[in-house]
Design goal:
Number of helices of chain B: 11
Order of helices and strands of chain A: EEEHEEHEHHHEHEHEEHEEEHEH
Structural class of chain A: alpha/beta
Structural class of chain B: mainly alpha
Strand content of chain B: under 5%
Radius of gyration of chain A: 24 Å
Number of domains of chain A: 2
Shape of chain A: elongated
CATH class of the largest domain in chain A: Alpha Beta
Strand content of chain A: 25-35%
Strand order of the largest sheet of chain A: 6-7-8-3-9-10
Shape of chain B: globular
Number of helices of chain A: 10
Largest sheet of chain A: 6 strands, mixed
Oligomer: heterodimer
Number of domains of chain B: 1
Number of strands of chain A: 14
C-alpha cells in the first residue's frame, strides 16, 4: 500500500511549519524521516494520519485521500504519536483490549496475546503500564499501533529516550515490521536511518532537503574527502596554487583552509610539497571522510563553515 | 462510541472516582435525610422526598464537575487525545461515549436512593400515602439536570489540560445555568417585565417544573437542547481548537 504526499504545506498563523513536501513510499519500504527538532516531522506525521488538516496539498494512502476518507484511513494506518502517550493506570492487556475495540477484529483476545508475543511484552504482560520501563512502554506503544495489523505504520520518534540495549531491540522490531508494511518513522538520530531505512527524507525548517535512497545519498556525499590544513600565520587562498585532483578549496579561518577532493585521493603529500615550495609552514593537517552524520549536518545544520 | 463508554465506566471504578462519587453522594444525602434533625425525613410531618430533591442539585453542582473534569482534560494532558482521534472514531463518538459514561455513573448514584422512597412508602400513614408521580417526575428532573451539568462539565474539560481548571470552570458554569438566570431576573432591567422569561432560561425553573409530577415536553426539550448544545460545542472545540 503506497503513501503519496503532494505539495503538503502547513501554516500555523504566520509560520510555515512545513513547506511543499512531496514524497512517496511503497509497501515493504521503510522511510526515515530525518530532521532536527522542530523541523516539522511531527506535524507532517500528524497530517499523514489525518489528525491535522493540511493548509495545502494532499495525502493519499492506498488510493484514499486522507481528508476526504478519514474513516478508511484510520483503519489502514497504525500510529505511534510523539512521546508515546499511554494510560499509566491500565494493565497492558486491558489497554490493548481497549485499542482493539476500535477495530473490527474477529477474536480480540487472541489478537492481543499474539501481539504481546510478537512485540516481546510477554515477561511484563501482567503489569500496569505505569510500572513499565521506558523500553517496555515503547513496546506497548508499538503494540497498540499494530493491533489491527495495519498496512501503513507511522511512528513518530519511536526510539527517543531508550538505552542502547532497548534501542537495538526496538530497531530490530521496526525492521521486522517494515518488511510487510509501508513504514514511515521519524528520528533525529542519523545512525538510526543508516540502520533501518530504504529511503531517507531530510527536512529542515519544513523544507525538503533530500529525498533519496540511502545508498544514493551516501554515495553522493561520500564523494568527498576533506583535508583541513592549518598554516602558521595568516594564509589566504590566493597563496594556494591549485594542485591536481582538487575539487575545491575553501577558507574556514584566517590560517586554515579545507581542500576537498574525490574519495580515494590523498592530497596531503602534494599539499605538503607545495607548501614547502612556497615557503609556508604547515602546523596541522587532517584528512576526514564525510560520514552520514555530516550529510545530516550539512543538510540541516546552520552553515558553520 | 461504546468502546469509549466501556473504558470510561471501568476507569471510574478502577481509580476509585466512581466509588468516591457514589459514596459521597449517598453519605451526605443519608446524613441530611435521616440524621440531621433539621432536614430529616423522619422528623417531618409529611411523607415527602422534597428535602432530597431540594438538596440534590447543590450536591450535583460539585459532584458532576468532579466526575467530568478528568474526561477530556486528562486525554489532552497525557497526549492520548491524538491517539484516540487517529482511531476509527470521530469527535462526536468520543464526546458522547464519555458523556454517557458520566451520566451512567449519576444514574448509578440515584438508584440506591430509591431506598428513601421505599422507606417513606412504608412510613406513610396509611402505608403508600405518597405522591409517586411527583417523585418520579423529580427523579427524571434530577437525572436530566445531572446530564445537563455533565454536558457543561464536558465542555469545561475540553477547554484545558488542567483538571482543576476544568473543575472550577464546570462548577461556575453549572452554578450560572442553575441559579444564575433566577438571580439575573431580579435585575431592575428585567424585574416586573421580563423576569419570568429570563427565569425560563435557568435550569432550576425547569427542574422544579418537572418535580411537580406532570412532565411537560417543554422542560424535556429544554434540558435535551442544553445537553445537545454543550456537547456540540465540545465537539467543535476538539475539532477546531485542538486539531488545527
Amino acid at each position: 500500500m503506497s503513501v503519496r504526499v503532494e505539495g503538503l504545506t502547513k501554516i500555523y498563523g504566520e509560520q510555515k511549519a512545513i513547506d511543499k513536501l512531496s514524497f512517496q513510499v511503497e509497501k515493504g519500504q521503510i522511510l526515515g524521516f530525518l530532521g532536527p527538532n522542530g523541523a516539522g516531522k511531527s506535524t507532517t506525521m500528524k497530517i499523514l494520519t489525518g489528525y491535522l488538516p493540511p493548509t495545502e496539498g494532499s495525502v493519499e494512502i492506498g488510493g484514499f485521500d486522507v481528508q476526504a476518507n478519514p474513516k478508511e484511513i484510520r483503519r489502514l494506518i497504525g500510529y505511534l504519536p510523539e512521546n508515546n502517550p499511554l494510560y499509566g493506570d491500565l494493565y497492558i492487556k486491558e489497554y490493548l483490549h481497549f485499542v482493539a475495540g476500535f477495530y473490527p477484529i474477529k477474536n480480540p483476545s487472541a489478537r492481543v496475546s499474539e501481539v504481546i508475543d510478537l512485540i516481546g511484552l510477554t515477561p511484563e504482560k501482567h503489569k500496569k503500564i505505569g510500572a513499565l520501563s521506558k523500553g517496555y512502554k515503547q513496546r506497548v506503544g508499538l503494540a497498540q499501533a499494530i493491533i489491527h495489523d495495519p498496512q501503513v505504520l507511522i511512528l513518530d520518534e519511536p526510539t527517543t529516550g531508550l538505552d542502547p540495549n532497548q534501542l537495538v531491540e526496538i530497531r530490530s522490531l521496526i525492521k521486522a515490521l517494515g518488511k510487510e508494511k509501508t513504514l514511515i518513522f521519524s528520528t533525529h538520530i542519523m545512525q538510526e536511518v543508516t540502520a533501518l531505512c530504504d529511503r531517507v527524507l531530510i527536512i529542515k525548517d519544513g523544507k525538503m532537503q533530500a529525498n533519496d535512497t540511502l545508498q544514493n545519498l551516501q554515495s553522493t556525499f561520500q564523494g568527498e574527502w576533506v583535508t583541513t590544513v592549518t598554516f602558521q600565520g595568516p594564509f589566504t587562498l590566493a597563496h594556494f596554487k591549485i594542485i591536481k585532483d582538487v575539487q575545491r578549496i575553501r577558507q574556514i579561518h584566517t590560517d586554515t583552509i579545507q581542500v576537498i577532493t574525490a574519495p580515494g585521493i590523498d592530497v596531503r603529500p602534494l599539499i605538503f610539497r607545495q607548501a614547502v615550495k612556497d615557503d609556508n609552514i604547515i602546523i596541522g593537517m587532517q584528512q576526514d571522510r564525510r560520514s552520514v552524520e555530516e550529510i545530516f549536518q550539512k543538510l540541516t545544520g546552520s552553515d558553520i563553515q | 462510541m461504546w468502546v469509549i463508554y466501556k473504558k470510561e465506566l471501568t476507569t471510574f471504578f478502577n481509580n476509585l472516582t466512581g466509588y468516591l462519587v457514589l459514596g459521597v453522594f449517598l453519605t451526605v444525602m443519608g446524613l441530611f435525610l435521616f440524621v440531621f434533625p433539621e432536614t430529616s425525613l423522619l422528623e417531618s410531618n409529611f411523607a415527602s422526598l422534597e428535602p432530597f430533591f431540594e438538596m440534590a442539585p447543590s450536591l450535583f453542582l460539585f459532584l458532576v464537575p468532579a466526575i467530568t473534569m478528568r474526561l477530556l482534560a486528562e486525554e489532552r494532558q497525557l497526549g492520548t487525545l491524538a491517539l484516540l482521534l487517529t482511531k476509527p472514531i470521530d469527535e462526536m463518538g468520543l464526546v458522547i461515549g464519555k458523556f454517557l459514561a458520566a451520566v451512567s455513573l449519576l444514574f448509578l448514584a440515584l438508584v440506591p436512593t430509591l431506598f428513601y422512597y421505599i422507606t417513606l412508602y412504608f412510613l406513610g400513614s396509611p402505608v403508600g400515602n405518597l405522591d409517586t408521580g411527583a417523585i418520579m417526575g423529580s427523579y427524571l428532573g434530577l437525572l436530566l439536570l445531572g446530564s445537563a451539568f455533565a454536558s457543561i462539565g464536558m465542555l469545561a474539560s475540553s477547554l484545558t489540560e488542567s483538571q482543576i481548571v476544568a473543575f472550577v470552570l464546570a462548577v461556575t458554569g453549572c452554578f450560572l445555568f442553575f441559579y444564575g438566570f433566577y438571580f439575573l431576573s431580579g435585575l431592575p432591567v428585567f424585574f416586573g417585565k421580563w423576569d419570568a422569561l429570563v427565569q425560563q432560561f435557568g435550569m432550576d425553573y425547569h427542574y422544579h417544573a418537572l418535580s411537580k409530577g406532570a412532565p411537560d415536553t417543554r422542560d424535556l426539550i429544554y434540558f435535551l437542547s442544553v445537553i445537545a448544545i454543550f456537547l456540540l460545542i465540545t465537539r467543535f472545540v476538539l475539532q477546531y481548537r485542538i486539531r488545527s
